[in-house]
Description:
The structure is a single chain. The chain has 579 residues and is α/β, with parallel strands linked by helices. The protein has three domains: 236 residues, 2-enoyl-CoA Hydratase, Chain A, domain 1 (Alpha-Beta Complex); 242 residues, 2-enoyl-CoA Hydratase, Chain A, domain 1; 44 residues, no CATH class. It is built from 23 helices and 22 strands. The strands form five sheets. Strands 1, 11, 12, 13, 17, 19, 20, 21 and 22 form a nine-stranded mixed beta sheet that branches. The chain has a seven-stranded mixed beta sheet with strand order 2-5-6-7-8-9-10, with helices on both faces. The two termini are 30 Å apart. The model has no long low-confidence stretch (mean pLDDT 90).
Amino acid sequence: MAHVPLRPIGDARARFLDDGEARRHADGLAPRLEQLHARRAEVREGWGSSYAERVRQKGKLTAWERLEALRDADAPVYPFGSFVNWGVEFDQAGKKLRSPGAGVITALTRVHGRWVVVISNDNTVASGSWWPQTPEKIERAQELALRLRIPVAYLVDCSGLFLPEQARSFPGRTGAGHIFKMNSLLSAAGVPQVAGVFGDCIAGGGYMPIISDRVIMTEQAYMVIAGAALIKGAKSQKITSLDIGGPEVHVHQSGCADLRVPDDAACLAAIREELERTPSNGSDFRRGGVQAAEPAFPAAELDLVFPPDHRTVYDVRQVIARLVDRSLFWELMPQRGREMLTGIGRIGGLYAGFVANVQEPVPDPEHRGRLKPGGILYREGIAKIAAFSRACNDDGIPLIWLQDIAGFDIGAEAEAHGLLGYGSSLIYSNSTNSVPMFTVLLRKASGAGYYAMAGLPYEPVLQLATPMARLAVMEGRTLAIATYNTKLDDEFRIATQDPSERATIEQGMAAVEKRIEADMDPYLAASRRDVDEIVSPAELRPWLAALVEAAYQSTGTRRVKNPRIWSLHDLEVLTEGAG
Length: 579
């Protein structure tokens, strides 16, 4: 393989963060992590142990138990979409109902060494019904599989739409019917789909498995356009759902299913056998004989790196040093656009590109001796990451965007420098890239900077956020100042001397800031699917390693160049010593 000049990056924690500061950072993050773990546990409980026990009394496994049985014994499970519908209540006859995780589990795990997307109806939540946002969550998982060309396993136990809320999940471009279009697109792209039907599979739930390459049914399973209750009412027939569409019908008569098995365990074993027949994982070939290795500095230290106050700076190179193998990194164009870091590292033995915001003040190339605030996009930085993004796309290298951005530079000088044009070039690059991109919201994700750095509207394969993430156009305090600008002086202090008017303005500004701060809660973003999953900083490396390996798993579906002919080498030669 060609020489890729990976060099040491980062320092031991004690060299840049003393024990007292580390404890303060850890103490600031601790309540957020405690909240994260508690909320994950609440989602995983579904509707609670009594509903799980009902499932087991029927001789069936719960959705989580099925997922555990399906995965390889040593395989991690990376759920995403965990907090869809978090905090949302649905009113049914005066009773408030929740739909933890929108009533479906979507996760990435390994089966026979292959990364697989698993979509499993949570049969402890209204018998696996589809709630508002359940279809979109399923479609997001299907999209991940389609973008990475990795297999999908459907673990179906679904009684169709949750009918009291049908108006919010049946119609629309991404309503329940769009799941079946995604089934079709996956099939057209040659992505393996294997479905196990474990119980109820009614109406839309009945259509979901049908386009799969293999359909396996247990003795308790049935697939029907309409269940027995509806048919009894419409046609006055005494008949069961199993009579209408059980395995006897669909395996032996209609041909809508391929295999009949006695129970959940046998069905999961059969799914594993089918997945073992799919093309193997191509990532070992792309490693080129280089094995995965841990960073020189523990990834767990990422829980110590970030200050509790989002306005306080930190060294993003220390973050990279705790993400990449052996803490080795090739930083490209380091002398240009210093508010941005771009470079290549291995993660899990595989090359990935990294783009990150530098938080510390950086030299102003236009005014020698002057510093500019970090965490903002200026002209050189925009041009730098646009060129880097295009080169990674040309070379077939997956891109990881680490966002902690306050937005674009503003003002007369910024406009004169043509930031709108440079920003458009970056937006075009990220909009047309075919290489897999993954976005992480570390802290701030503000304004058009969030878009420019491959935010969710620019369709990264997956977008993660830490519990510290703040996603908004403008910070609460800044918006409060903008709202009451006419009442403030040039130093943004309240201009009036009238005590009553001053108190009114203070209360109004505080109310605006409080409302915006609440809107920036990452769980609110996750609830409405503006981020895919919330993870702790220390969990970022294993998550990213899994996603990057999944990006290299499929062979022949996208260009992946060997390092001898990377465009990145040309970039380095052309910019070496510049600045």
